[in-house]
């Protein structure tokens, strides 16, 4: 018998983790070996436990699921990643694919889709819910019609990390400690973010972060 797929589960709601874990652990070929309540903890646990598959919520403190997915795709390219979210949102869906995720599962149908998504990921096959397939086709047709690519992001991934932490109320020193960069570098990034987005202060940054799905209101 082949070994069970080792899974890291990251969601900031303990109740959600418990429910998802029940679904996964009831399958003989799947086993949850670690849990995390935010993206930064997820990265630490991925390094520690070396899972085969990571399942991330999108909206989590410190680092979002997408930010954690991008980082782990870089440092553990063999790790398969699924996004489990309540957002039926095209922007998040496309960002999840760009971040290295091989599947996007809606929490509302997790009991139906998640197990199959896990198995598909381990077969190196993408798993997309029906609405996501429609979004992909519509996006492809629109780009083909206009003859252009998806526009570049407004801010860099590093600026996005800093924007999220500022919006969560962290000081420049705390942000520097979390991201292992100097306070001066944090301040420079922060100034660049304000300039690029045309914003004035922390309040406007926070509103933008909520709209962009980096933090929950």
Word description of this protein:
The chain is an alpha/beta fold and 217 residues long. It has two domains: 5-143, Rossmann fold (3-Layer(aba) Sandwich), CATH 3.40.50.2300; 157-211, Arc Repressor Mutant, subunit A (Orthogonal Bundle), CATH 1.10.10.10. The chain contains ten helices and six strands, in the order βαβαβαβαβαβααααα. A six-stranded parallel beta sheet has the order 2-1-3-4-5-6, sandwiched between helices. Strand 3 (53-56), helix 3 (65-75) and strand 4 (80-85) form a beta-alpha-beta unit. Helix 2 (39-49) packs parallel to helix 3 (65-75), helix 7 packs across helix 10 and helix 8 packs across helix 9. The longest helix has 17 residues, at 130-146. The protein starts with a strand and ends in a 6-residue tail after the last helix. The model has no long low-confidence stretch (mean pLDDT 85). This is LuxR family two component transcriptional regulator. InterPro entries: CheY-like_superfamily, NreC/VraR/RcsB-like_REC, Sig_transdc_resp-reg_C-effctor, Sig_transdc_resp-reg_receiver, Tscrpt_reg_LuxR_C, WalR-like. GO terms for molecular function: DNA binding. The modification 4-aspartylphosphate is found at residue 57. Residues 148-213 form the HTH luxR-type domain.
**SS class:** alpha/beta
- Fraction of residues in β-strands: 5-15%
Count of folded domains: 2
Helical content class: 40-55%
Q: Which strand order do you get reading across the main beta sheet?
A: 2-1-3-4-5-6
Largest sheet: 6 strands, parallel
Shape: globular
Short description, anyone?
The chain is α/β, with parallel strands linked by helices. Helices cover 54% and strands 13% of the residues.
């Amino acid at each position: 018998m082949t070994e069970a797929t080792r899974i890291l589960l990251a969601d900031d709601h303990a109740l959600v983790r418990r429910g998802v874990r029940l679904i996964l652990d009831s399958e003989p070929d799947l086993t949850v070996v670690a849990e995390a309540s935010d993206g930064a903890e997820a990265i630490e646990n991925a390094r520690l436990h070396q899972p085969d598959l990571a399942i991330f919520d999108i909206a989590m403190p410190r680092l979002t699921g997408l930010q954690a997915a991008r980082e782990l795709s870089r440092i553990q390219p063999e790790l398969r990643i699924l996004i489990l979210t309540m957002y039926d949102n095209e922007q998040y869906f496309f960002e999840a694919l760009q971040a290295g995720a091989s599947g996007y599962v809606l929490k509302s149908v997790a009991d139906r889709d998640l197990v199959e998504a896990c198995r598909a990921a381990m077969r190196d096959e993408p798993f997309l819910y029906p609405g996501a397939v429609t979004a992909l086709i519509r996006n492809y047709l629109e780009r083909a019609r206009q003859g252009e690519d998806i526009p570049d992001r407004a801010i860099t991934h590093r600026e996005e990390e800093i924007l999220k932490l500022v919006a969560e109320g962290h000081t420049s020193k705390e942000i520097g400690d979390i991201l292992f960069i100097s306070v001066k570098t944090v301040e420079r990034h922060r100034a660049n973010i304000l300039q690029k987005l045309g914003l004035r202060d922390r309040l406007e940054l926070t509103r933008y972060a909520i709209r962009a799905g980096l933090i929950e209101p």
